[in-house]
Amino acid sequence: MILRSLQVPKADFEAATGWTLKPEGACRGDVCIPLARPAGDTVDVAQVARDMAMPLVAAEGHALWALGPAAIGSRALVTAQAPDLQLPDLDGRTFSLSSLRGQKVLLYAWAPY
Amino acid sequence: MWRSLRDELHPKGFELVTVGLDALGDAGCRPFIEAAKPSHPSLIDRHHVLAELFGVINIPSSVWIDEAGVIVRPAEPAPAPPQAGAAGSRLGLPAELPQRMREIMAEAAKIPRATEAYHAALRDWVANGAASRFALSPDAVIERSRPRDADKALGHAHFQLATQLEMDGHHAAAVRHFREAHRLVPDSWTFRRQAWSLEKVGDDALARFWQGPDPKAPEAWPYEGDWLSDVREVGAENYNEPWRP
Lengths: 113, 245
Known about the structure:
The structure holds 2 protein chains of 2 kinds. Chain A has 2 helices and 11 strands, in the order ββαββββαβββββ. Chain A has helices spanning 10-17, 45-52, and strands at residues 2-3, 7-9, 20-22, 25-28, 31-33, 42-44, 56-58, 65-67, 86-88, 94-96, 104-110. In chain A, 41% of the residues are buried. By secondary structure, chain B is mainly alpha-helical. Chain B contains 11 helices and 4 strands. In chain B, α2 (26-36) links the parallel β1 and β2 (42-45). Chain B starts with a helix and ends in an 11-residue tail after the last helix. At the A-B interface, β8 and β11 of A face β1, α2, β2, α3 and β3 of B.
């Protein structure tokens, strides 16, 4: 997740990381990680990063950070429940993977290089 | 390439979502998307969140997700459906290729592709759903997803920082973080190919496929490896892990 500030709206944090912030902790599918403090409408990214073992890297000389994935378990997936991927199309409209519930989906990664 | 397969399977409750992984965003992906005239959602992923969220390490790759939003096959190589026409004409490449590009295409041709088995499995899953032997259990999906430790997680953060710095016009800083990402996530081809593709050689359709030092200034190449050297080192036959049913 790219950050211009270390205080971000909860919805942005959830959309970018795939973790939903609930009273019991940060959850994805049936996996929940307890947090030191329940998240309010604004997430203290540095604190949550510590709680969830997420690497936080700063760009030297810029107000810019990147938050990496939680290193939980030993695999890229901690649950088979797909996160609600949200990405723009060519016209800049955000598409949500969850809008395709009820259909089988093949998510296909390609690149122009 | 995929559109005719998608249009065939769509009435059976199937949808294809293509995602272009490119820090250059629209500018990089648009010509290819417009040429494909997709009837399905076609998305742009400038920070490679598919790597972070799904463990994608190479392209082309696929993830299969069922009607309830549960992954039934994690990221794996996804060979294109069999089709007519040469790749070069689709990409608008010049007929006379430079030596390096001929060598790249010769290595790429050696990469094993389980095309028939993969597409038979896909059709089986679309027809039979959870009863298909190709739909894996949640535990198997997690177990088959890419290994990830703290170093790899850190490498993903460096990679996303690099793509943002590149988008913001700070190329030298981006290179430093791409290099860290490459060191920390050595099994990701996408992280390397993305960085190499930003070192354009020439300004024609080949510029981003060169993926290595400019012969006119090889000393300016900022990375340890390049596509041709790295593929030859590992062996084209090992470029992808073998497809498992």
